[in-house]
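Weekly modeling sync, notes
Attendees: S.R. (lead), two postdocs, one rotation student

Agenda item 3: backlog of single-chain predictions. S.R. asked that every request posted to the team notebook include the full sequence so nobody has to chase files. The rotation student volunteered to paste the first one in as an example of the format we agreed on. Action items at the bottom.

Example entry:
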Amino acid sequence: MSTTQIILLSFLLAIAAGSVLLALPVSSADGTAVPYVDALFTATTSICVTGLVTVPTVSTWSVFGQAVILFLIQIGGLGVVTVLSGILISLHRRIGIGSRMLIQDAFNLNTLSGMVKFIKSVLAGTAVVEGTGALLYMTVFVPEYGARGIWISVFNAVSAFCNAGMDILSEESLCGYRLNPMVNIVTCLLIVFGGIGYIVWWDMLRVLKNFRSRKLKCFRNLTLHSKIALSTTAILILTGTAAFLCLEYHNPRTIGNDPLPDKILVCLFQSVTTRTAGFATIPQQNLTNASSLVAILLMFIGGSPVGTAGGVKTVTIAVLLVSAFAAIQNREDAALFHRSIPKQAVGKAVAVVSMSFLILAASTILLSAVTDADAIDVAYETVSATATVGLTRNLTPMLNAWGKIIVMVTMYLGRVGPISLVIAFHTKRRKNNCLKNPTEEISVG
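Predicted structure, as returned to the notebook:
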């Protein structure tokens, strides 16, 4: 099997195993086995770190069931290949060339060297960030829930870092903490850290280390990838916050009755969570249609590559836009930060966006055919599933069996489809001695 096939199959096997565990009576809060379709849906949304749920996580699952969900979220966020490699490393087993190729393809890296060090760094960095987030959450949840607050803090920290958006606080996500600064700030930071990408982590640490030793004078020594990821992320968060603030300012169902500082906090969280996190501090069905369209756009873009976020990714969109403007200006090469973008990267960006749009279009049409929901609710649901976000306008719990199947397939394709496409484009072309087809001019646009 090719590395692409192994990665796709690993996600399917993890979903199957998780669904069997969640279908057991011990996984249910009342001791009665949950219908298998709901267990399968929960396993899929956990592995795909989406967060859409057909049954409430807090009241449906026992502690054992919640532990299974948390484990699936962690596997889905880091990747099955990463977790298995980490287990082999902890057992002092040798990582062979096949495993190294799997890691390379799973993270879309350009080299096979330093794979073991990379996996160790990813696992260690994840543990530090999630552990810190859990400790900060405990300052709020332990005084409120007692010893159970520890479990809630750990669950929320892992879910936020992996951009899963599932919680065990209430059936209304984080709406009860919409004005709590600690919960909002910690959740936003975990989402951003998980979605910015691991290679940006290491690059920033390198620059900070050199900056402290006075070898570098500023952060312009970041790699081009890091510059694009960081700048695009900052622009999207700030633009999203401003857009939600303007569009929801007078909406009494969301922030219309709040003072300005609280409005800014809620809109900032909404802007960050639409970057594939899935937590909600305001009911999404209460948003205006204009705000919902802004959220759909942000969800489709998602986070950055080589992280826990979904979507078509910030770097992909930046490369696509820069290439489009270069074509409009009749420039041969697209450039960012005084560096030319490789044509291969432009081709991958077009492929990823095109594939994601095809998945989105097909799932929207199919879900519209089997439900009677409004078009805006269906589009919100399918974009959320395709980009593995987890936000919903209260449509997920109302889905029939066919709707659940469509959303499950969409979540899986959204999690592995664009990744698989990038991996397929990353493989080397075979030499072809055949003559090339003749070229003929066409009109475009």
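Discussion: group reviewed the output briefly. Strands lie at 335-336, 339-340.
Action items: rotation student to repeat for the remaining queue; S.R. to check formatting next week.
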